[in-house]
Design a protein that fits this description.
The mean pLDDT is about 95. The protein is α+β, with helices and mostly antiparallel strands. The longest helix is centred in the C-terminal third of the chain and has 21 residues. The chain has two domains: about 350 residues, Amidase signature (AS) enzymes; about 70 residues, no CATH class. It is built from 14 helices and 15 strands.
Length: about 475
């Protein structure tokens, strides 16, 4: 196995700085692997190799002079296609934006590069970042490195697949409905959805928008929990408009062992029943805490109605996503809204209502959401962490049926619509909570399975540190067999 290709970013930077490997050598390794394997996986869809080669050489030359660029000195990495990189297209998978060339880097990418990173490419997404799969007519379909017949997740599917296949040292994704977390789960890597608003999103858009979208966040995907923390330290903090008025100061987790944690467990729910293996993985992580002497509670829940929280999430998420609608689409939704029966509770009816909310209605949903946030706040006075599934199942086979209501997955022998599993990402998303996904190894079918670690708002470093401790017990990232050479 090419261990260098599957090492985490923290280890790679140490090797670069100690001159065990050069930045140029590492970049060429990734390029060679992409040229060899990317036709099978289709994770990396835009590249800037020449520009990256110049910067990698500059990084090596700087080290030779005794200069240190920062925590990511000389690390080659990729970012999700939805981030602006000067001179490259930002399309969100929409052919209408194929000529949308960015004139400057997204702020997150500026900060990564200021710490020494070398961004050499961008990874695939679904159109408008709105699917559990990653395919579009511009760039095609991304496949899961553990089984090419299966999805890598979405919308940061190319990011997770590139990491799993050893194409890159680190990745940046985004998440509104599990778009960091479900790809991390499906592809066996680490992912972190931060507390809303603490990583600035400027430059993660199809246009020159500077307004923060509700619920949506940007965050890292990586091959270790250490790397997640590294990115949080680099990218987190106020945008210029808030400087020097506030400084991000996340509390470190000082616990020395798993036995020091008080953990809640939400392993299954009738709203979105999960596969037996997904539930088992959550319980296995909980058992590690119990074995270490920690407190584990399988019954306690925050004091709100889960179905109501899910409804608020659906309304607010689709309201937030509706800003990307064209004028024609918005007008069509308004016409559809007028014809809806008041008793129509179908998925299409819910989407139509959410996509055409009056501000008064949005404010009412937001008020209910904020009551749920306070319920979580009270819950996390008693618990450090909540463990939950990421998705209902492991990665499923590609399904490009344009009729979304007909896309189904098998859960314990029952066919259910795969969008119903957004409940599990919604628990954290609607209330702005941080959530870290940790790989727990492969299942009997050779597919990765992850577990979601949810914490209180601003508790990002605590969920990440808990993931690091669990990874020490379970082994962390496991490379896909067919792409190890």
């Amino acid at each position: 196995m090419d261990e260098l290709a599957f090492s985490d970013a923290s280890s790679l930077v140490r090797k670069i700085k100690s001159k065990e490997v050069s930045s140029v050598e590492l970049l060429e390794l990734y390029i060679a692997r992409i040229e060899k394997y990317n036709s099978d996986i289709n994770a990396v869809v835009i590249t800037q190799y020449d520009k990256a080669r110049i910067r990698a050489q500059a990084a090596d030359d700087a080290l030779a002079r005794g200069e240190d660029w920062g925590a990511l000195h000389g690390l080659p990495m990729t970012v999700k296609e939805s981030f602006n990189i000067e001179g490259l297209a930002t399309t969100w998978g929409d052919p209408a934006y194929s000529e949308n060339i960015a004139t400057e880097d997204a702020l997150a990418c500026q900060r990564l590069q200021a710490s020494g990173a070398i961004i050499f490419g961008k990874t695939n997404i679904p159109i408008h970042l709105a699917d559990f799969q990653s395919f579009n007519t511009l760039y095609g379909t991304t496949r899961n490195p553990y089984n090419l017949e299966c999805i890598p997740g979405g919308s940061s599917g190319g990011a997770a697949a590139a990491l799993a296949a050893g194409f890159t040292g680190l990745e940046m994704g985004s998440d509104i409905g599990g778009s960091i977390r479900n790809p991390a789960h499906y592809c066996g890597v680490f992912g972190h959805k931060p507390t809303w608003g603490i990583l600035p999103k400027r430059g993660h858009s199809l246009s020159d928008e500077v307004t923060e979208s509700d619920i949506s966040v940007i965050g890292p995907l990586a091959r270790s929990a250490e790397d997640l923390k590294l990115v949080m330290d680099i990218v987190g903090g106020a945008d210029e408009i808030h400087q020097p008025g506030w400084t991000l100061s996340l509390e470190e987790d000082k616990r020395s062992s798993l036995g020091d944690y008080k953990v809640g467990v939400w392993a299954n729910d009738k709203i979105a029943t999960v596969d037996a293996t997904a539930e088992e993985r959550v319980l296995n992580v909980a058992a590690l805490v119990a074995k270490a002497g920690g407190h584990v509670d399988y019954e306690a829940r925050p004091k709100f109605d889960a179905a109501a929280s899910q409804d608020r999430y659906t309304q607010l998420m689709h309201a937030a996503m509706s800003v990307e609608q064209s004028d024609e689409m918005f007008k069509a939704n308004l016409q559809r809204l007028k014809s809806l029966d008041v008793n129509d509770t179908s998925q299409m009816a819910a989407l139509t209502r959410a996509s055409t909310l009056y501000f008064k209605d949005w404010f009412a949903f937001n008020e209910e959401r904020n009551k749920v946030r306070w319920a979580w706040h009270a819950y996390f006075k008693d618990f450090d962490i909540l463990l939950a599934p990421v998705c209902m199942t492991h990665a499923f086979k590609h399904d490009h049926n344009p009729r979304l209501s007909q896309r189904m997955i098998d859960v314990n022998g029952k066919q259910v619509n795969y969008f119903s599993q957004v409940f599990w990402s919604g628990l954290a998303s609607v209330s702005y909570l941080p959530s870290t996904v940790i790989p727990t190894g492969l299942d009997k079918d050779g597919l990765p399975m992850g577990v979601q670690i949810i914490g209180r708002e601003m508790g990002d470093l605590k969920t990440i540190e808990f993931a690091r401790k669990i990874a020490k017990e379970l082994g962390g990232f496991v490379p896909p067999v067919n792409f190890q050479k």
